[in-house]
TrEMBL record:
Species: marine metagenome
GO cellular component, one term: plasma membrane
Residue ranges constituting the RCK C-terminal domain according to the UniProt record: 145-226
Pfam families the UniProt entry points to: TrkA_C, TrkA_N
Classification of source organism: unclassified sequences, metagenomes, ecological metagenomes
Keywords: Ion transport, NAD, Potassium, Potassium transport, Transport
Sequence ranges assigned to domain RCK N-terminal in this UniProt record: 5-125
PROSITE patterns: RCK_C, RCK_N
Name of the protein this chain belongs to: RCK C-terminal domain-containing protein
């Protein structure tokens, strides 16, 4: 099973990077997030708004700045600036530091998707999609397996695996205290699809399909939260 990334470096403190960091702080308490933002005023703003993330004022394309962010220790790097070329170059630069890191780049121009394989970038993010939740799908890879939107982004369909530290393990559905805005549609257990009733008990390695309002995503995330370090 793939380990969930908990040492995360975000390049670009714009709306997407800021909201992603905020969501991670709320849903993965053990995560260590660092953000590199080149605009000093913006860096100061997000530093005041975030509680546990470390903000570095600098250019993500500067190797000295990446070294300051302890790039060697980072597990996942997300290039989320407003510049496609910068995001691609950051991902290439990270590959130079270590081939084991997961790289994700925000790309607006569809033609750049053709470069993903040759540049060895793990994931390209389309900002027209459900950006924060789609990024979280990859950041939490191994637990949150798929995520996509319905009804113009108001709802998310999330497929997630129960692991040994999940809040739901060995708990009856009726005891899960789910809000009305979160519905469990089905559970996959050893190739069997189950439509759970109130007395259904979740087991380790169950795959659960949720329908959730977008503003309830942090609750779903917390159900599958782990503390790897």
């Amino acid at each position: 099973e793939e380990k969930i990334a908990t040492k995360i470096l975000i390049i670009g403190g714009g709306n997407i990077g800021f909201n992603l960091a905020k969501n991670i702080e709320q849903s993965l308490e053990s995560a260590r997030v660092k953000i590199i933002e080149k605009d000093k005023a913006r860096a100061e703003f997000i530093a005041n708004e975030l509680n546990n993330s470390i903000i570095i004022n600098g250019n993500g394309l500067d190797e000295d700045v990446l070294a300051e962010a302890n790039i060697d220790e980072v597990e996942t790097v997300l290039a989320l600036t407003n510049d496609d070329e910068d995001n691609l170059m950051v991902s290439v630069l990270v590959e130079k530091f270590s081939k084991d890191k997961r790289t994700m780049a925000l790309i607006n121009k569809p033609n750049y998707s053709l470069l993903q394989s040759s540049l060895k970038i793990d994931d390209l993010i389309d900002p027209r999609m459900n950006t924060v939740s789609s990024i979280l799908k990859h950041v939490h890879k191994g637990t949150i397996q798929t995520a996509y939107t319905l009804l113009n982004g108001e709802y998310e369909v999330i497929e997630a695996e129960i692991i040994e530290t999940s809040e739901l393990i060995n708990k009856e559905l009726k005891s899960a205290n789910l809000p009305d805005s979160i519905r469990i549609g089905a559970v996959l257990r050893e190739k069997e699809i189950i439509i759970p009733r109130s007395n259904f008990i979740f087991k380790e390695k169950d795959t659960v399909v949720f329908l959730a309002q977008r503003d309830q995503l942090s609750i779903v995330e917390s159900m599958f939260r782990i503390s790897p370090f």
